[in-house]
Specification:
binds adenosine-5'-diphosphate, globular, two-stranded antiparallel ribbon, about 180 residues, five-stranded parallel sheet, Rossmann fold, alpha/beta
Length: about 180
């Protein structure tokens, strides 16, 4: 089973998936690193300091790398909802996200672009359109440990084939940032 952990940069994907690496039931693939290492992209966008991934190549490579001796393969990336049918979308209020992204060496434009994407639910909307099962988790006020425990419950539920209550608890649309204004 492939589970994508997606979300706008700064919402907590790396923090969580680093912890999942120690779980003997989970194989973890950090997609952004793989895309860069194996040059799985069609373009380099110098202005925006990013690459344009070739998602067909990426998808094929993930299937090749999937180690079926693990019951779960976790794909960590803001692109993982392009290739996984089951995804967990991490969310963070734009105010909190601004603080997290400003600590990185992101340009003002890059911070703003990511805040807008988060405020407009871009990744969540794509995930809901493209994926079979979507869980939404707010990481604004909690701790990495809390989110890790919630994700552990979701993974357990998925393995059991019993996610009805979890789908309700973490249903898409449960967070709302539309009152966030840009200056
Ligand atoms: N669930 C969480 N609750 C509180 N803070 C978090 C949570 N997840 C991540 N953070 C904090 O947010 C920052 C960005 O997290 P990171 O994992 O690098 O995000 P991403 O991989 O999505 O870009 C880190 O400083 C981290 O400590």
């Amino acid at each position: 089973m492939i589970i994508g952990i997606t979300g706008t940069p700064g919402t907590g994907k790396t923090s969580i998936t680093k912890l999942l690496e120690d779980d003997p039931l989970c194989q973890v693939i950090h997609l952004n690193e793989l895309i860069k290492e194996e040059k799985l992209y069609s373009e380099v966008d110098v202005e925006r300091d990013c690459v344009v991934a070739d998602m067909d190549l990426v998808y094929d490579r993930v299937l090749e790398l999937q180690d079926k001796s693990y019951p779960v393969t976790i794909v960590d990336s803001h692109l993982s909802h392009h290739i996984a049918d089951i995804v967990i979308v991490l969310r963070t209020s734009p105010g909190k996200l601004k603080e997290r992204l400003e600590k990185r060496k992101y340009s003002v434009e890059k911070v703003r672009e990511n805040l807008e994407a988060e405020a407009l639910d871009i990744i969540l909307a794509e995930a809901v359109d493209w994926c079979e099962k979507v869980f939404e988790l707010d990481t604004t006020g909690g701790t990495v440990d809390r989110t890790f425990k919630d994700i552990g419950r979701i993974i357990k539920g998925l393995r059991r084939g019993d996610t009805e209550e979890l789908e309700q608890e973490f249903r898409p649309g449960s967070v709302e940032w539309s009152d966030y204004f840009f200056d």
